[in-house]
Every structure is written in structure tokens, then in C-alpha cells.
Amino acid sequence: MDLDTVRTFVAAADAGQFQGAAAELALTQQAVSxxxxxxxxxxxxxxxxxxxxxxxxxxxxxxxxxxARELLRVAERAAASVRTGRRPLRxxxxxxxxxxxxxxxxxxxxxxEIELDVMMLFGIDTAVxxxxxxxxxxxxxxxxxxxxxxxxxxxxxxxLDEPLQLLTGPAHALASARSVTLAELAGHRxxxxxxxxxxxxxAYYDGLAAEFGLTIEATGPNFGSDALLDTVADTPxxxxxxxxxxxxxxxxxxxxxxxxxxxxxxxxxHSLLWHRDHPHPALATLRAHxxxxxxxxxxxxxxxxxxxxAR
Length: 311
Prior knowledge:
single chain; alpha/beta; Arc Repressor Mutant, subunit A; D-Maltodextrin-Binding Protein, domain 2; 2 domains; two-stranded antiparallel sheet; globular; transcription regulation; DNA-binding; LysR family transcriptional regulator; transcription; WH_DNA-bd_sf
């Protein structure tokens, strides 16, 4: 499949019109039309329908678009594999609102001269495979899961122990507490629909529930943080855990409470992973920055699962 035609298709889909794609790619509108027509002939489907406002994707076009983007990403990774020192530093932060994202924002403020590509990958296996292949340069993960040791060519260093907080609605029985102990949480329903078996965060919360007799439920589809916040705000019997550095915004009428957890304080261990044999030139600067900002690990009065790697 010709990458120029795929690139033209993506540009037209993003612009919503062939003229906008032509301007972005420094082509004539006729050239864009010819490339799209060639791609449609190759695939045997219509990708766009012409409208008064420009060009809209057909159902087939909508189905093809994510694969087209992936084709272009694969091509870029192939080219980048031979010019590692010239491309941006690629770091997986798992999610946009979590602590690793905050760490990378701090790094960018301290080192604006270093170009970054911030990625969000799912699960430690995917992240480790991407690091080993060179698709990304580093990833933030909790490491040490039972039966899932890191490959020998992957290095890791623990950079942040993030305390957990309890999030409740205004009518929850613990909503007025200044802090809550793990023992006091026994018998309360803690809802975390983002827990997926086999992930490092599911292993972490499984260990927390088992050790302290907590009821952590992952029932129902995960519709994202907004739906979670809505449900917790409206359901007196439900609460959820979140990291102290997780950045969330909710309507004032929700009346949600973030309550420190103690006795001991469960902390989520964020480690930085990278490949020992082909590190990006900017990785040393990132490691130095994170090392300077890191606090002590396994401090008195905190808890992590026994499987968590000390480094």
C-alpha cells in the first residue's frame, strides 16, 4: 500500500476537505483527489462522500482511519530506528491525568529544549515490548508482578511512591473524615471499573484487598473518569481509590471528597523502565531529573505489595 496515498487520506480526514489536505501536504487539490481515488480503487470501497462543507468519511472510511494512522506510525518507527539520536524522546505515561504525566510535565518545564513524544500504552507487557523494540524509549510502570520478571535487557528505577486517597460522594458514611485507616475501609464498597486482570495495577489492588480485607469491585464497563466521578457522587454506598497526584476536575455540585488513607498509607510504586543497550541520548537527563525529584521509598507507615521491586 502506497504510504503517500495513506498519508493523503489521513490529512483529508483530519481536515474534513481535500483543499485543506492539499494545503497541508503542499499539493494541488487535483493531486489529492487522484491519490484518494487511487486508494479507493485499491481498497474497492468509497472512503469519502462529498458534501457542501467538504468531504465526510463513509463508514468504510471511518473503519479504515485508525489502521491508516497505525500504518503511518509503523513507517515512522521504521525510519526512527536508524536515527534514534535525532527523534523526540518517547515516554509512555499510561494515562493523561496520572502521576507519570505530571512527572513528564515537570521534566518539560525544566528542560524545554528536549523534544518529547508522550505515549499512553496499556499494560506492562505492551510497554516492555515497545521499549525492547525501540518504539518508545521509556515507560512508567509498577514492576515485579509475580511470574512477570522484567527481561534482562530492561533496566528500571523506582522514581515515585504515590499515596492513595479515598474519593467519596457527599453522602458517603466516611465523607466527613479528615483521614481514614485501611481497617475502617473494611466492609465499604470500593468501585474501580478500570481494573483489568493481568495488568500491574490490578495486581496491586488485588494485593491491597487481600491483605486488608477490602471489598474492591471492578464490575461494569469502564466509561472513563467522568462517569466514575458521576457515579461516586450520586451513590452513597460507593467510593473509589485514586492517586494523590491524579489531576481530576468535577462539577462543584458533585461535592466529592478526597480523603487521605493511613494505617498504613498504601502507596503506588512508579518505576521508570528503559532498554540498557540503546538508550535515547536525552534519557540520562530524564533519569537525573527524576532522581533529583524522587523521595524515599518504602518509608515507615507505608504499604506496597511484597512483589514490588525495590529499585
